[in-house]
Design brief:
The protein is mainly α. The protein is built from 3 helices and no strands. It is globular, with a radius of gyration of 13 Å.
Length: 87
Amino acid sequence: MKIVPYSPRPLQAELHDALSEKRWAVVVMHRRAGKTVMAINHLLRDAILCTKNNPRFFYIAPTYSQAKSVSWDLLNGSNIKLEKLIV
């Protein structure tokens, strides 16, 4: 089932499968390998499919401004596209 409009690269798809089995993970990949895109899309999918009461999900970066500058455009654009799926 495709929840988020996103097609992962082969390595990203393998990591999505591995991350689905674990609670905590550290992903070390080269620069521009798509770590942020993979993490945000994995987070969105898990948040949408979560059946728990009042779940909390978060994205962590070294500083607030870095987290916002790196992921905000991606999150904001995804949320606009997802409104039709949620409603």
